[in-house]
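Take a careful look at the protein record below. Let me know whether the structure tokens fit the sequence:
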Amino acid sequence: MRRPVPGPERSSDQGAGGGGAGPWHGSLRVRLSLVFGLMFFIAAAAVLAITMVLVDNSMHYSLDLVFSPGYAIDPHPAPTLQQYLARQQSGEAATKTFILGSMQRNLLFKGGLAVLAVGIVATTAGWLVAGRLVRPLSVISSHAERIAGRTLHRRIALQAPPGEVKSLADSFDSMLDRLDQAFAGQSRFISNAAHELKTPIAVSRTLVEVAMNRPTAPPEVRALGENLLAVSERHEKLIDALLTLARADDALTEQLPVDLSELAEAVVAAAGAEAARQDVTLECHLAPAPATGDPILLEQVLRNLVENAIRYNVPGGRVTVRTRGRRHSAEALVGNTGPLISEHEIPVLFAPFRRLTDRVGSARGSGLGLSIVRAVAQAHSGEATARPLPGGGIEVRVVLPTDQR
């Protein structure tokens, strides 16, 4: 089945939040934490404002009682009206205003510090709670990325209590079931059709060879037979390419340790005669590149790259084959000389049955070579890319991860 093209890796927070340019940009956990903190600060500010109003009213009431003529602040008799008026005139009103302002400022300062401290604690708690809330979404996102980039046979199978998140994971698994069945049916159809087409082609080839080998066969029949055999050979190669493509899109049958340098060495040795006929020079720079995968499919990848590089070249041209091992990947690079190719034409090269015949001046081949290369690379959780070379030709780069988890 045709695998979806894997996208760039993202962190779990990105997956939960919908992705973005940075590790926190668009993260649902960050947004939930900010919302929790903002709601707390708004609520705390409202409580502080209400407290200020209540305290202000209460203090006005208390001070009015203290400075009222009938209120005794000590066991001595209450002051007379003349004494009260004298006190008012000596600045008791200013004292009352000072007391109110001082208490309001004190309450606002200490209350603001309390709101800030508790707000920080509440936002931190919101961050932890949000992380726990979005953890199932992060699990779904990470599983979905691995499934999309590798195989549709795996399922999320989220272990969680019944709820919206559990329902989402189950719905996603149901969708994967239907997609898996559809792609498996398509793969079976291609494989069966290719096998069925091989039989009549083999019969036709046999009949043509018998007719050509008759002693009484005229030269015209022999010439026609040679043309028919060439057409049959091309059709057989096309069917073999379709079978390889169908197998590459299906699950890998073998996962064995391989070294791309050894496969490349064998492919280059086998392609030496064809390169000599095309007047193309083969150059190899092979460093150990250990990987894990299907040796037959990986050898087919390198064979397709080398054959394409020889076929779509210029007389006296050059093909360069390189392999190298990285810390977490193995790479194979095949470049060739040839006509200039624009950057926007590169995606066309990987499309099935597409060839740049107007650029390379040749319609040889089935147009499935690079399609098979990309399909096999993606089946191994890797990627295949190409870039045009400044002097003409292209370089195809196949990267395979060494960790196939």
Observations:
- Residues 164-249 form a domain with the Helix Hairpins fold (CATH 1.10.287.130).
- DSSP finds eleven helices and seven strands in the chain.
- The chain has three domains: 12-149, 164-249, 256-401.
- The first strand starts at residue 256 and ends at 259.
